Write the structure tokens for this entry.
Amino acid sequence: MSKENSTFKSSLLLTAGRSVGFLATFFIPVVLVRVFDPVDFGTYRQLFLIFMTVFYAAQFGMAESLYYFMPKAPALSSRYIVNSIVALSCAGVVCLGLIVAGGSELSRLLNNAAISSHALSLGVYTLLMLVSAVLEIAMTARKHYLWASVSYATSDTLRAMLLILPVFFFRDLKWLMLGAVGYAFVRCVVLIVYLRNDFKGEIRVDWTCLRSQLGYALPFGFAVVVGILQTNLHQYSVSHYFDAATFAIYSVGCLQIPVVDFIMTPATSVMMVRMSERIGQGRTDGLLAMWHDMSRKLALIFVPMVALLLLNARGIFVLLYTETYLRSVPIFMVWSGAILFTTLPTDAVLRVFAQTRFLLILNIISLVLIAVGIRWFLFRFGLMGAVSITVLIAALSKGLALVRVRSVLRVPMRQLLPWKSLFLILAVAAAACIPTVALTNQLSLPVIASLLISGVVYSSVFLTLLFISGALTEHEVVSLKGWMQRFTTFRLRTN
């Protein structure tokens, strides 16, 4: 089995676990939007906007540094993990204090007095989640892909249960936050059990390793902080200038499709581990092939996904969020286009080559451009202006990152990407839209039936055109035919 296929198969195992969790977490906003009015739902979105900002910013790269250090020095794995946990615990305590002390200021910033009443539970939740942030990362870096997959699945399923059930019974945002704290506490317990079973008596802080980690992580951490601010500035701006109900409309439009992260994060994580191993062995051969293979496979998944999201945007929002949130549809369509950028995992490659300072500079430039332009865009184009400038700057940032990847891989621009394959995938995805639109426009069906038919028709046409166009490799064709044969045999047996 080739290294490229092994890499992607390992990522598929992780993706399977994330996908199981997705089936559970998918229902969190679907339930909450029907339990809460737009004001309370907007408050919920604001609270978790704060959490996501603080959670990723406060890590300062210490959790992610495990992908860089552990594959290169497996014997020191336990020390690197403990170092990360200690650093994240300290950061979590600081975040808890800041969130509790700054509750009133957060309410003022987000134009919502209700935020301060949930500051304590939000701070505790953030602390516990930071402590447990290394759980699946450590499993992945140690190549315990099955354990990581199971952890992703059970963790996300538990999160859905502990966020939905309290709200379902008590219909109060306070109980949702208490459920979130309970979920984070369970993750910490699981982390302790994993460390005790996997490392026995080897658990201790190593100050020499810690200095190396900080040298790598701090520049990357600053880049992440700036990147988080860049990514979320548009939401904070809308929240500041509008009320909670309007923010609910906007934040729903900026819907994060969980399956994107479930696919991209495991896939790029495994790629980083493989690349780091090879570089640690003093070899650079095969790095470009890994990058090409991952970009192609992510494009085969995300390009048709974006096409389906754009074709069915209105139906999706009616089904998930009711007609109350139809104003979110145009925002969602622009936001979904940014998923295409994830087909090129430039940050993963740059982190393997320790290009963290470049990532920091790039994120600072992007943040400054958004900060300078967002107010004008917001007042000139309304809610659409905020999302538009964010996506435009993200496109510019991705272009600059690609130039840097070309430099570290030392290849000419014509070899940087699998250009022919990517062009064929885009062309096939666009062509498959034509018969899908033509058919669905002739039908008058309930929303869910229309979405199902659209998905089946589009997928069938897309896969057919992929075969015809030659966009698939020989190995991919054989694998796909084998899957189709197994599926057909299963259907015949069940019938």
About this structure: Residues 3-417 form one domain. The chain has two domains: 3-417, 419-495. The mean pLDDT is 87.
